[in-house]
Amino acid sequence: MRIYKPAAYEKMHMGLKVLQADLKSERGQAVLHKQLANTDVLITSFRPSALVKLGLAWKELHIRYPTLCLVSIVGASGDRAEEAGHDLTYQADSGLVNGLAMPASLYADMGGSLFTTEAVLKALLLRQRPGKTHGKGVFHQVALSEASGYLALPRTWGLTAPNGDVGGAHAGYKVYPCKNGRVALAALEPHFAIRLCEAAGLPKQAATQMHKRDTHESIAQFLSSQTRAQLDKLASKKDIPLYTLPP
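-> C-alpha cells emitted (247 positions)
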C-alpha cells in the first residue's frame, strides 16, 4: 500500500507508530521480540509456513509469551491457507466477479479487516473472562476468503440477483435515469413504496405490485421527468430514501 497508494497508506496509519524490521535477521527478530514482551495482541498476515520459519507459530509464541494473543490473517482457512491469493481471487471464489469487470472495492480485504477487529476483541475478552482462558493468550485465524463469502451472502441467497428484490426486480429499489443525472432509489419497505407511488401519481395499490412491468415503467417515466434538485426536495418532503447522482 505504501508503494502503490502512499496517500491511502498514510491515512490508514495516521496516529500510529510504525517500526520496520527484517524478521529474517537476528537484529530484526530482536526488535520484534522486544515489542512482543509488552504486547497484548499480535496480528500477522503471513502464511502458516512463513510463521513457522520466522519462529512466530502459535505454539512457540504461546510458550514464550503466555498472555500474548495471536490473530493470524490468511487467504483461506484449513488446507487452503498456503494457497497464493489476493482480494480479487477471493471475490471470484465467492461469486462477486461478473464478466470482465473489476469489483468496485476490495471487499475481501475490507471485510477481513472487520473480521480481524472482531477477533482481537474476542481474544481480549476471552483472556479476561473467568475460566480456562483467563489470563492466557488466545489464538484466532481470520480468512479473507471467508470475509468475502460473508459479504457475498446476499448474492448467494439471490437477493442481489437480477430477479431479486434488491437486484432490480423491485421497482422501488433500482438505479434510474432522471432529467439531469441518475437516482439511486431505495423505497423497498411498503410505507416507502406507498409514498413513492403517490409521488409518481400511481394508485395506492401499485405499492403492492412493485414487481410488475407496468409499475417499473411508470416509476421510470416519472423519475425521468424530474431533475436532481426536484428529487432531492421530494425525498426530504415525503421521506423517501433516494440519492441523486451525476450522469
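The first strand starts at residue 41 and ends at 44.
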